[in-house]
Records
---
Amino acid sequence: MARRLFIALLLLLPVLMPALAFAQGLPVVNVVSGKGGVQSYSLTLQLLALMTVLTLLPSMLLMMTSFVRIIIVFSILRQALGTGQTPPNQVLAGLALFLTLFIMQPVMMDVYNNAILPYMNQGMPFEEALAAAEAPIRGFMLAQTREEDIAMFMEIARNKVELEGPESVPFTTLVPAFMTSELKSAFTIGFLIYIPFVVIDLVVSSVLMSMGMMMLSPMMISMPFKLMLFVLVDGWSMLMGSLASSFAMP
């Protein structure tokens, strides 16, 4: 009986929380006017803005870091090995995430030291902090983006303004151009990875055909040889090192 009562209270807790907050008079938005007409907002609105930014973090991770190139290469490698769902998607995503953090560490430290810390401790204006945080991210993205992709999106946007330099590329143009370049790089690397394993499949298939074993699946026979080749050449270390070094740092 006590256990059922406890479960019922847990189920009613999300319903009762808004009523309790309203009863205590918690403000939703509290605007305080300061000197010179400067307005500050309550912590509730700041938390709302923070939660909004957190919802955009997955998109930012996909569109402005090295994550896309890494996860696509890992997925192509798994298909080339013919191992089905091994490694699982969670393992590949975890490897891609931590390798992305390793590659993006200099950029993130630059953003933290030049934008976040001055904004939090020294009272840097938000606009200046945003510009300081944008500079290293823009430099990283420009180093990976092909000029023809930038030109293509500038033409699509019908932007006839002559660019004075890389820093004058609009951010709304740089992000899709960066994504296009990353997809090209990922599929180029995946193609080069796929070739040795295709050769093994062709050799095994030819041997089986010459032996008259046409009913035997070549994939079942070639997969151990592909795994052995990948292990003997220390494939994971070689692949991760090559992916990390493929990103030209500004």
---
Amino acid sequence: MSSYETLQGHATSEGTRKYAQRAASQGRPAAHFKTFDDLHLSSIGMGTYLGQPTQEDDLAVESAVYQSVKSGAVNVIDTAINYRAMKSEKSIGKALLRLVKDGVISRDQVFISTKNGYITNDGDYPNVDEMEYVHRMYIQTEVITSDDISSGYNIINPNYLAKCIDKSLMNMHLSAIDLVYIHNAFESWNQDVSRQQFMDMLAKAFEVYEKYRAQNKIRYYGMATWTCFRVPPGSHEYLSLEQAVKTAESVGGKDHGFRFIQLPYNLAYSEALLLRNQSVGSEKSLTILEAAAKLNVGVFTSIPLFQGRLLGARIPDYGGLSDPVSKLVQFVRSSPSVIAPLIGQKRPEHVEENLKVANLPPLSGDEFKQAVKVLTSQPL
């Protein structure tokens, strides 16, 4: 049994710049990398949601992470503690150790994000299901009570979130995680508690994240969401991004770590671009992308291919693109305020196909407006 190894450090300005420069020297366009908070991040990220908690998929995810990072096209890797019952995190950890050992990268060149909040079991113990795992690990040991679990199987109790961060660090062999999101929290709790109660719970969650920031165990935190930023203001499921940022300010001061959100965005779910549902200060009728820019919050987006469902859609050619994956990804990665869409990929041929678009720069502002007109029949 080899001794447990930890990769020290986190993504840095210098490290990510080095990654981007090497990619450019290999022929990737410089514009493939976006700069946020002085980090140079690839405009395509890799997601690790898909797959079963099997050994076969463990190896596939590990290989896909290795291949994606080595390609020079991806230095953003996204996961969650509950993806494949912790096994996605473990596969990422193995891939990162190999990438560093093989001299492909150093830890400071890659940006790693995970999420916590949902209940999960540990896929290395497949006979223990989620509820039994939570009962044994957290309820019996009085870390939480059963009342801390929402009807959406989500837990925001600060003790639980702290345990999740500790576990994620261990799963991925990291001394620090670049970004930790609270995972679909409002979606999982809005049936159970009032809006005010939720904001109070969110503040306590942010306190945990700020504590871990102070210990250099996480760098940033954020909210990974499903519907709350994509519905009209009158909706029961609606959340104001400005209010979430103010909650972070109340906990961490002006220098708080709440700097990122994640939400679904693709040609079927185009609300991020077209729905004017946010306000910042006296400015009303902003899209979530516009509000994020004003609040200095970076945006990552999920399901650019709608888990493959959009691949069969008849999408008009635009911007010199004809293959369906490139057409879908180029639209999202060229959207203002979006750092990167996160693409789930496991098979080597998918990695290759998904990363083809990294050979092109994102669309310019005018080209993007033209593409929106072609793709959505709506002028921006």
---
Amino acid sequence: MDYTLVVMAAGMGSRFGGLKQLEPVGPNGEFIIDYSVYDAIKAGFNKVVFIIRQDFYEAFRETIGKRVEDKVNTRYVFQELNDLPLGYQTPEERVKPWGTGAAIYSARDAINGSFAVINADDFYGSDSYRVLFDYVKNNTNPSEGLALCYEVGNTLSKNGSVKRGIAIEENGNLEGIRESKIEAHDGYVIAKPLDGSEPFKTSLDTLVTVNLFGFTSEIKDIIVDNFSKFLDENINKPDSEYLVPDIINSEITKGNISFKVKGTNSKWHGVTYREDKEELVEAINEYIKAGVYPEKLFEKGKTLCKK
């Protein structure tokens, strides 16, 4: 049976090699994505689907893919502007990708059963993958997904504001996601919703989403099928995006799906700002000293044992 991790990496193509998101963070040149795949394999995932740009395939496979191909069933799918449902054509002026929902659409034929989705350039921590794997392996409700959330205080940058999805939660159930710009203050944060509504103050233990979800095959089909409806309304809007949080909000409101909210003990790390890299490198070095990671993640021919 496939236990699949879907890695959204199509946005990395234009950044590869030179910008902050793909600078090495490990002692042997490892990227964030290497630690994500390592944690996923150790948690029990046996298949990884990388969503990338087609013109990025050779560089991606040479630098990342070949490190893991002998450790886990590896698939590559391409998120391209012209990968649209039958009958639709990308406008000539469109240059912006269609969004995270379209990324899942591009992987529609590579995914069987329940699966987890992550960003390629976010460091989520090992505990998050154990929680995700438990969902992928054991969930039996075809219309119920998982939103894996962090306390917002564990996702902040010391170097400026960040964008997070405030989880609107009731008794462990997700009622919605409020995408917001988060600004840290002394002991609290100010959330400025991206929809233009009034900013509000909230605590450091408020739960937020960072594109870390568990989906079923049924939810995947909803995402795939609704892409056409999105295009009917937005195909001629150059900046429009078919985004996973928007899809989740809409389908929860309609009563078509439900989502459980679970937390994680892991600390999230990202590189929103170049200065964030130093903190992440220090954190990884501490994880290595504590035995969470080996100094060299992937050795040719060496099997990774699940925890």
---
Amino acid sequence: MHANDVAALIDPVLAALRRRPDVEAPELRSHDAADRLLLELAASDHAEAVVGREVVVIGDTHGALTLGALALGARHVRVHQDSIVAERALAANAAALGLSAYSHHPLAEVASTDARLALVRLPRAFDALDAIARAVARGSDPGVGLLAAGMVKHMSLGANDVLRGSFGRLDVSLAKRKARALVARSPLPAGEIAELEPARARDRDLGLEVVAVPGAFAGASVDIGARALIAELDGAPRVGAGGTVIDLACGTGLIATTLARLNPAARVVASDVSAAAVASARLTAAANGVDVEVAQDDGLGAQPDASAELIALNPPFHVGAAVHTGIAHRLFAEAARVLRPGGELWVVWNSHLRYSPALERAVGPTRQVARGPKFTVTASTRR
């Protein structure tokens, strides 16, 4: 397909995309050069695997790849997105564009023997890429091609080695608009490719076992922000029977597990946008013998107003690859909505971010619990 024809098909789609319900800001985009490169390569080098066929898309953030593939003539797109916010952004953009021939699938089930092409946004974590490569190689036709792209500044040679673990041939594209693609072909026989098992580790200092499925933030380790917050939770109010305690943006569930130990009679909820985080939190709670309700949710959308006595939060400070405070501010507002008057929000944050005024505005009076060179822990009382 000629470059002008490709542009005529995909440009209207990319121009119409919005990030909602994800954070929207002038400096944040709904697609980038890596998305465009994947679509251009799909149309120019793999048109026979796109037009009239089923295509697999993994890691789409707001719908550029899924809806772009449909605009290029794909009959149907099988999609895996780790984030529920990404799923909802795709749905909103699909409705706005009138494109609906796609379906969501767990990673282990997203590949199809009917599909000859998988378009993949390169994840940062190699274990996540390994799980993706294995899923595509094990579940696809032997003629499948896997196109994985990212921005050059975020790529490393280690990704090549990961893909070679599941595919017999790997080619690397030239950089274009500061993006580059890896093209994997000739999947190894399915019998030679096992599914990745969750990673497990015991943290002696915390006395907790961490379990992480591929792609979970920090893996089977304890990130230093979570460690700083857990160290102070013994000073948080205790919640008894009939009360609710929440670990918001729970990751692998270590904070939720700690809260369950400290509040054995309370209902403990762990919530995260990430499917990998939710699966990991369930496994971590079970490995430590505590009862935690785990939910994949955008913030605390499933929780009623004024329903919790205590919320703990280790907020992300990245939106995609960009350092941005937008998600943290949204989570502060969600916590304020769900806390009962007098309830407390305990937050750990990078000290240079100086979130105290924002917490005061969103939640209520905020006191400093602990402060170090890197992290500050605060407690805010709901007005």
